[in-house]
Design brief:
With about 140 residues, this protein is of the alpha+beta class. It has helices spanning about 1-10, 20-25, 30-35, 40-55; strands at about 60-65, 75-80, 85-95, 100-105, 110-115, 120-125, 130-135.
């Protein structure tokens, strides 16, 4: 519905198709009009970035870099959004080093020192196609 609303907002004709009744209701003109009023310039820009990347066959992701500003090696874990399970994505970032991860907006990471005495959480605020640095 969001993409359809963007297309209508951009004066691009659409012919939505759906077999399921629920999808037909989501694609109805009244539903599309309800979404259009929430298309802020920032959201439109994000949609245009995503559409452009998809049209070029590119993956959509946000890029985050972890800079180790400590005097000890750090470990980076991604936190699964449904289970809160911490999955190791980098087992060693040495002091002064940087590691880059491709991820999605809203993903959460936890960083530990090797003794697990220091723990810091990071939430990705960068949008698709954007970069963010964590220290």
């Amino acid at each position: 519905t969001i993409l359809l609303a963007y297309l209508v907002h951009s004066n691009i004709g659409i012919i939505p198709r759906a077999a399921a009744t629920a999808h037909q209701q989501e694609n109805a003109p009244s539903s599309i009009k309800a979404v259009i009023q929430h298309l802020t310039p920032d959201r439109i820009e994000k949609l245009e970035t995503a559409i452009s990347a998809l049209m070029r066959g590119q993956q959509l992701h946000a890029s985050v870099s972890f800079l180790n500003a400590l005097e000890d090696t750090i470990l980076v874990h991604w936190v699964h959004p449904d289970t809160n399970e911490e999955v190791v994505v980098s087992d060693r970032i040495h002091p002064g080093s940087v590691e880059i991860q491709q991820t999605h907006p809203g993903h959460k990471f936890v960083v530990y020192d090797t003794d697990r005495k220091i723990r810091k959480e990071f939430v990705v605020g960068a949008g698709y196609g954007e970069e963010q640095q964590f220290r």
